[in-house]
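Dear colleague,

Thank you for sharing your sequence with our group. We've completed the structure prediction you requested, and as agreed, I am returning the results in plain text so they can be pasted directly into your records. Please verify that the sequence below matches your submission; if there's any discrepancy, let me know and we will rerun it promptly.
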Amino acid sequence: MEPENISDLRGSSLRGSLKLSVNSNSIWRNNGVEIFSRSSRDEDDEEALKWAALEKLPTFDRLEKNLLERLVKIADEDNEKILLKLRQRIDTVGIELPSIEVRYEHLNIKADAYMGSRALPTFINFMTNFLETMLTSLHILPNQKRKLTILNDVSGIIKPCRMTLLLGPPGSGKTTLLLALAGKLDPSLKVTGKVTYNGHEMNEFVPQRTAAYISQHDLHIGEMTVRETLEFSARCQGVGSRYDMLVELSRREKAAKIKPDPDIDIFMKVAATERQEANVVTDYVLKLLGLDICADTMVGDEMIRGISGGQKKRVTTGEMLVGQSKALFMDEISTGLDSSTTYSIVNSLRQSVQILNGTAVISLLQPAPETYNLFDDIILLSDEQIVYQGPREDILGFFESMGFKCPDRKGVADFLQEVTSKKDQQQYWVRRDDTYRYITSKEFAEAYQSFHVGRKLGNELAASYEKSKSHPAALTTQKYGIGKKQLLRICAERELLLMKRNSFVYIFKFSQLSIMALVTMTLFFRTEMSRDGMDDGGIYVGALFYAVIRNMFNGMSEIAMTINKLPVFYKQRDLLFFPSWAYAIPSWILKIPLTFVEVGLWVFLTYYVIGFDPSPVRLFKHFLLLILVNQMASGLFRFIGAVGRTMGVANTFGTFALLLRFASSGFVLSRVKKWWIWGYWSSPMMYSTNSIFVNEFDGKKWKHIAPNGTEPLGAAVVRSRGFFPNAYWYWIGIGALVGFTILFNICFSLALTYLNHSEDAKTTSNEKEQSNSEGQGKKKGMVLPVEPHSITFDEIIYSVDMPQEMKDRGATEDRLVLLKGVSGAFRPGVLTALMGVSGAGKTTLLDVLAGRKTGGYIEGSIKISGYPKKQETFARISGYCEQNDIHSPYVTVYESLVYSAWLRLPHDVDEKTRKMFVEEVMELVELTVLRSALVGLPGVNGLDARAAAIVMRTVRNTVDTGRTVVCTIHQPSIDIFEAFDELFLMKQGGQEIYVGPLGHRSCHLIKYFESMSGISKIKDGYNPATWMLEATTSAQEMMLGVDFSDLYKKSDLYRRNKMLISELNVPRPGTKDLYFDSQYSQPFWTRCMACLWKQHWSYWRNSTYTAVRFLFTVFVALAIGTMFWDLGTKVGKTHDVFNAMGSMYSAVFFLGSQNMASVLPVVAVERTIFYRERAAGMYSAFPYAFGQVCIEMPYVFVQAVFYGVIVYAMIGFEWTVTKFFWYLFIAYFTLLYFTFYGLMSVAVTPNQHIAQIVAYFFFGMWSLFSGFIVPRPVSS
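Please find the predicted structure tokens below.
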């Protein structure tokens, strides 16, 4: 049997057919014998037949599930057993596994950046930078940007089979180093030095597929489930060399008559089988990462309820683990995870790296001691330099040689990140006989070179790696993991899935189109539509033109839908999951059926009712033309979205491009100026309009000669509007639209290929850390007094309606209970830690107590100092710091705090005291050096050990003033954990399992759990927080046969807490219930001015909105001025007046729509902040609306003045003061109402995308009744 017949037998079931070539298989052979003898082919054929039969078994899915259940019962323990069995099987037959050694030598990375206040994206800075960039590109001005060093001459070796931990404070260059090692650096960076894999430079292989960079940013498609996300990743990345190795393994085993472990054999075969490979590997990784419990849950986004932040972080990790990359570079993968989950993930990675010859560098912010001890090597970065790289065991010796020692019960990772800090270094100085002085990172780096570890590394780097030692399968040279046809199919399947999940958007669009069709057909009703003269022809012209623009602009929602998916696309494109065209083609082709539905709704509702030519042929031609118009427009809008990359830019410059197409189409301006004739012939609108006119007016009912005419009425009507009446122009239009459709979709694909994600502006501060040793240990207090209050909650039950997906999976209850009778008390002066594994309900409990839950059902009692909680008064005295950082992005740190203090503190606190308070808080939280930095858009950067210590000092000082504070924490170090007074520990499912004091060195907590039979004793020096979480997992409950919640409710501790709740539920003598004269702390006018003050700074620095809109207005004014040049002086003929009206219609249509569209993303961001601040009792809706509305007025006024002056002068309207100012007045208020309409659209819809669809619906309605398309007597 020949190999190609094998492919037929297997179909597409085995990855890319057998491909048994010398090149693919010889990499696993170590002898020179011809590998494809007849017998070996027959053996491989037999294996192929077995695998094909295995797939066809009806019980295959069940077999796979049972297999995983047998192999992986407890992820941490069984993972190592599986890997050891795999390695044993491979070693038995003498197959060598590939490995990768990564070297980086003299790596210098620099960036060009504006520094200090020049980096703020203010209106003035934007305009200055815009002009400066133009002049610099023409070599008129030198580059004003300064060189910013990110990494300074770093060298090192990442060795295989060893786990490397990358440590360093935020901003030290960790992410840049990982990107450099993974071959994913931004091309705009200045890079010298080199990175090699097994001696091979980056251009000799495909680094994106050889190594995997796992980002700290969790970018996923919210509409896909966890399982679907990982399966898509697995299918795109393929099996690599796994299949070839398995063929060789089977051949050798058969030759040696070795019978492999049946479970391991099936697992390896299934893992090398297409379709099944994605399933089994995905299920395995899901179990490994603890994601199997949420495998069929949507990932979610800001508008779709999905998995938790910690689970999203694990999905990001899992996306790359399902692939075949042999080197892993992982950036802050523990953010949002509890310490036990982090330990479990890192331990699994360690097992894989050490057993299967992997290479891994992992960056962590706050690794717990037990997680830190899993690593073999440490890289410590600080101030652009590598302070240490080498074995973990030697790093403390290095710092002790420099005079610094890690204290007992201090996490080594925390010590390492603080010992290079100017503010924290002195506390670790142990040479009491020597005077301490600050040792810089540069001095540490120089000392490391002479340390024995540094000398050894230098010697190793001096000896170059021999390329001949590199395993042929170590480095990947193929750009993609699977064939191009398979990639196209996989992308198409995902696009189809997303279209189904987003069906609401399409149904909404169909409904809108149907409503507009009903309105249009009643406006142009056939009984009122005669064909007697040119005026009647004009009415038909309006109806036909409106059909074109309606079907064209109905696809504008493609801009938002394209931009929404771009971040995930860029990530997957850069990881070489698929080529851009494999993503672009399904986005186009799969939406063609939707176009038929959209256009069919419009045409078949309106065509005969309006009274167009009744010929079925002309009906079909009308239908075909509008389908091509819709397809052309959808391609154009996708292209605009891919080029713009942000909603603001895409809407602005997209609208400008549409204006040029629209105004030069020949309908608005019948005689195009000669300098714009190129626009006329390249406008899809011209061909669309000409074709639809010819199709109608060439019909039999338009063949009669008009009164006082010399040609058929239909031809006269077409010619009067400046179009061509010849019948063949219909087919010219069809051909042109087909060409434009293909062109725009090709351009969409090219934009996806060559453009990258648009980065947000960031402020670069050149301020250095200032010494603050004086008074560092001094306790700081608040300048404002506070009244202490306790919070008690008893038997809190929180439930929501049972999700439909859970009902589909067999749930019979009507409600899903998230908190199950939780009770506790938080007291003044007592710092409480709220802990538990992911899914325990920590944030849910805080949301319920803070009054942030707007849905669901809450039962039980909540009291404040013994009085029933009233949300109105409680919001005045409480502060809720959510885990999601929701702030206005364009205000500075100082301004954010001033604004918050302005609206939260009592109105009798004067401005001077308020600012003193803000200054003290900034000093307390050590934000003084970031005083003028922008808060920025929501990010995912967590706290490193030093930042966490700063926060804890702040919280401790806050508690000491008599406030009641409770904090959720994920992975605390020993000293941070033991800074808390009490612990509120929850288990998965929303139940408490320990509520009580920690005690000195957590003695009470340890005593409580160690008293339970089966719980292992804590080891000396082990982190009690980690031990506690490990000891109370659901796996431990199953193993011990206990329920920790039941044990707690039977304990003395539970009874003590119940007594405490009862005691605090009685108001103290002499106290009274909370009462305030007003709902808000500030008077109404103060609230309005505070909101306006913040909006002023937000708008001034949001240059992508304000400055881009201004430039757009100037360009539009110049475009309209040159198109309609000097038309104001020509009013002798009807079409001259019509052209003048066209200039005004174009301005209203495009400037208005751009103002409306560009304000949507701005208000969408601010609305999220408004919800948080309103819930905090800072203000009501009116002051927020006041600030948002008032700040638009001056910006729109400048916009209207520039537009009005330019256009009025260039068109040559009558120069009288009265007429000019009336023109400005109308232009100003026209732009204002469109802008305010955009504000309203966001306010009444759930998200920005729906807002855009709704906005364009009414915009289309206004355009129809504007009086330009349909004259007023007809519409009335």
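Summary note from our side: Residues 418 and 946 are 6 Å apart (CA to CA).

Kind regards,
the structure core
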